[in-house]
Design a protein that fits this description.
Layout lengths: L5 E5 L3 H13 L3 E5 L4 H7 L1 E5 L3 E6 L3 E3 L2 H4 L7 E4 L10 H5 L8 E5 L7 H6 L5 E6 L3 E4 L2 E4 L4 E6 L7 H15 L5 E4 L3 H22 L3 H6 L2 H19 L7 H8 L9 H8 L5 H15 L4 H20 L14
Parallel strand pairs: 1-2, 1-6, 2-5, 3-10, 6-7, 7-8, 11-12
Antiparallel strand pairs: 3-4, 8-11, 9-10
The structure holds NADPH dihydro-nicotinamide-adenine-dinucleotide phosphate and ketopantoate.
The site of ketopantoate (KPL) has 10 residues, from helix 7.
Protein name: 2-dehydropantoate 2-reductase
GO molecular function, one term: 2-dehydropantoate 2-reductase activity
Function: Catalyzes the NADPH-dependent reduction of ketopantoate into pantoic acid.
Length: about 325
């Protein structure tokens, strides 16, 4: 169909591979996927997918697969560029990386966790629609093998861009929702992106880092006492910080989030990063809420300690990866 919207999907991890699959399954758009470490394997064998929505043992080779943004341009121009990479400002700027594939009419869709993830995109792409995708999917990619264990529920709204009309941003957003939605998943238009991001953070700001720091999945964390001793307290702090930022969340959300992956021994995406030795989403998941707490005078001792510990772990990961050099001779105070 000549009028199908053209989508570029960047980052085919647990979330991105399933997003690419969902878009292609729906058949309402043409999709090009940019793959990095999985490129050769997926070109040859496809992804192997076990999905609670679509079934087990699926072999999926995206229709158009490329290994760089430069190479993707042969399939452009793109109506949507979907970013499903980790959001790690200060480590890599994905907005700079995707820039060659973004034209003035391209909407950028951020399917990523965290708070304040849109700032860079709005700053660097002031004329573009920037969409916020909040995903409850629970999906991981280990060497092209996708394990997807929670029903794909994606809510998509727009981060308000004052340079564009709300009508236009809403139209572009609703078009994406209708392209993503199919008979196996759920995708809805999100009227209140700020609320959804704080709500999701109740899960991510506690469980992601504490599972990463302890290397325990959510089941083991609960059995060994960490859910009651740490997670509930961190979640309460997120709710208080959200309130200081104008978002009211119910305390009942804590149990909803704690129970949301039952009965799976789920490894949150940040624990999967630890398993792989990848950099962590420290700033958008922990740093930004802690900074907002400070600014608004909200006490957040648990989140602050979690953030401080996570920064140390991040340093070790970066050092191991050669992204940071520690001086051979230790610099000590004179
Ligand atoms: N996993 C989950 O269930 C959920 C995750 N989220 C959020 O969604 C986002 C994505 O998470 P997740 O899917 O787990 O992440 P993954 O780490 O599984 O996947 C990220 C992917 O991005 C790729 N990538 C990174 N940089 C580039 C680049 N420059 N060019 C091309 N590809 C690149 C990586 O490739 P490579 O392998 O080469 O590094 C990897 O395939 C995060 O913000 C996460 O917090 C939200 C809800 C649920
Ligand atoms: C809460 C969850 C599991 C999505 O469903 C997630 O966001 C993650 O693993 O980072």
């Amino acid at each position: 169909m000549p009028n199908k919207p053209n989508v570029l999907l960047v980052g085919a991890g647990g979330v991105g591979a399933m997003a690419s699959f969902a878009l292609e399954y729906s058949g309402e758009s043409s999709v090009t996927s940019v793959l990095r470490s999985d490129y050769a394997h997926v070109v040859e064998n496809g992804f192997k997918i076990n999905s609670c929505d679509y079934g087990r043992g699926i072999r999926y080779r995206p229709s158009n697969v490329v290994n760089s943004i430069e190479a993707s341009k042969q399939y452009g121009p793109f109506d949507y560029v979907v970013l499903a990479t980790k959001c790690i400002p200060g480590v890599s700027s994905m907005i700079d990386i995707i820039a060659p594939a973004v034209s003035k009419d391209t909407a950028i869709v951020l399917i990523q966790n965290g708070i304040g993830i849109e700032d860079e995109a709005l700053f660097k792409c002031p004329g573009n629609v920037i969409l916020s995708g909040v995903s409850m999917i629970a999906s991981s990619n280990v060497k092209g093998h996708i394990e997807h264990s929670d029903r794909d529920f994606l809510s998509v709204g727009y981060f308000e861009n004052v340079n564009l009309t709300n009508e236009h941003q809403e139209k572009v957003c609703k078009r994406f929702v209708s392209m993503y939605k199919n008979d196996k998943n759920q995708c809805v238009f999100d009227e209140n992106v700020k609320y959804s991001r704080w709500r999701k953070l109740v899960y991510n700001a506690g469980l992601n880092p504490v599972c990463a720091l302890t290397e325990a999945d959510v089941g083991r964390l609960e059995i060994f006492g960490g859910t009651d001793s740490i997670i509930r307290k961190a979640m309460k702090e997120v709710i208080a910080i959200a309130k200081s930022d104008g978002v009211e969340l119910s305390e009942a959300l804590m149990d909803f989030m704690i129970r949301s992956k039952d009965p799976v021994y789920y490894r949150p995406s940040m624990l999967v990063d630890i398993d792989k030795g990848n950099p962590l989403e420290v700033e958008v998941i922990c740093g930004n809420p802690v900074r907002i707490a400070k600014k608004n005078g909200v006490e957040a001792p648990y989140l602050t300690l979690i953030y401080d510990l996570l920064k140390v772990v991040q340093g070790r990961i970066m050092e191991k990866r050669g992204m940071l050099i520690v001086p051979k001779e230790r610099q000590v105070p004179k």
